[in-house]
Amino acid sequence: MNGNAKIRPVKGMQSLYGEDADRFAHVVETFEEVRRLYNFKRVEVPVLEQTAVFARTMGETTDVVSKEMWSFESRSEGSVTMRPEFTAGISRAFLSEGWQQHAPMKVATHGPAFRYERPQKGRYRQFHQLDAEIIGSADPLADVELLAFGAHLLAALGIEGVTLKLNTLGDQESRENWRGALVDYFSAHKAELSEDSQDRLEKNPLRILDSKDPRDQAFVADAPKMVLTDEAEAFFVKVREGLDAAGIAYELDPHLVRGLDYYRHTAFEFVTDQLGAQGTVLAGGRYDGLIEALGGSPTPAVGWAAGIERLAMLVDDNVTDKIEAAILPMGEAALAKAIEAAAYLRGAGFAAEIYATGKIGKRMGRADEAGARAAIVIGDDEIANGVVQYKDLATGEQTAMKLEEVVAPLTEILGREAMEDIEAMMGDQQ
Ligand code: ATP
Ligand code: MG
């Protein structure tokens, strides 16, 4: 090994700081808030699973399983794979951790996922997902709950220009019939299809509809549409009625198929016009066949996943954490008092930062940049009198008071701002 070789990150894996990291955190925090509103419980599942967990559930012919998995031989477990998504691992845990007793369960999680893809904007080899699942419910209300959670999340993030595209893949019977019709149709044009789609024709013709290749897209437009059984139709009607009742707008897209094998009935994508080919920000559907594929008894389930990086690119850039109080000790003797003041304010729930060195003007500048609303200035006179100087940075007004007394005006400033935020939000909705 060359000891002087420059160390570098693994290709397609990002490290974040500053605004990018703040946007990322904002997406996760908002997800956690909305998750609680919808009563989805947190779950944690491992990053590594037996390769079979993904191969059996996602389908050997999918892009993810056939070319995108990070798999390796472990010392004692045979082939293991770094999760490319959450659904398979959560379903595995449902079976092997005895979670069946909690069914129907509404669960959510987030964390890193890994796919060996060509890195580009919005596409990485380690990316991060938000994930929500309802396992053990065949009720269309579960689909509605899940879609409402997704729509609410995107609204709470302030993401605009998003369309919910909705389709049904039908039940087993309607799906089989559709598959046959697609094979007949595409076989007649086989020579003109892309090589990938010629291959798909035998293995998974539905996926031709998902093709981004222009050679295929010419034929996709006129491809036969799914003919639903009465039962599948009734299910889809209930989902749509539920969405209407929840006030969630959608567009029907008869060619929307999900990339993975295990979907039945509802399939959906929230798509934005802002990220080019990487426009899908939240996607999912019903996967009634998956848990059976893992060896469990038939268990209906529905879920979605969203890419955190893609959401983070779409959120407002004004999500950086702000401090509330800046503490400025003037001189050596004031430092201990400043530390004491910081401990007091943080204990009282205020975000505070000590600016101990540099010219006072510079320090004020840094405090301002960090978002401080008030400055607490402590010098020799203040120490002698047992007070601090409290300065409202908006008005410039400065008053000497006891440390404990700064809580009231600081609370007032922040309360006023919170009210203004709420009023602005209400204004937007009118
Ligand atoms: P795409 O068509 O963009 O490859 P996909 O169908 O493979 O997406 P899913 O398996 O549905 O994606 O994953 C859910 C979400 O995870 C996607 O909508 C996207 O936001 C995100 N995602 C998927 N792959 C990546 C990646 N390599 N880098 C960043 N985000 C990703
Ligand atoms: Mg993909």
UniProtKB/TrEMBL annotation:
Keywords annotated in UniProt: Aminoacyl-tRNA synthetase, ATP-binding, Cytoplasm, Ligase, Nucleotide-binding, Protein biosynthesis
Q: In this protein, which residues make up the domain named Aminoacyl-transfer RNA synthetases class-II family profile?
A: 27-329
Domain of life assignment: Bacteria
Cross-referenced Pfam families: HGTP_anticodon, tRNA-synt_His
CDD domains, alphabetized = HisRS-like_core (cd00773), HisRS_anticodon (cd00859)
Q: Which family does it belong to?
A: Belongs to the class-II aminoacyl-tRNA synthetase family.
PANTHER family in the cross-refs: HISTIDINE--TRNA LIGASE, MITOCHONDRIAL-RELATED, HISTIDYL-TRNA SYNTHETASE
Protein name in the entry? Histidine--tRNA ligase
Starting at the broadest rank, the lineage of the source organism is: Bacteria, Pseudomonadati, Pseudomonadota, Alphaproteobacteria, Sphingomonadales
Gene of this entry:
hisS
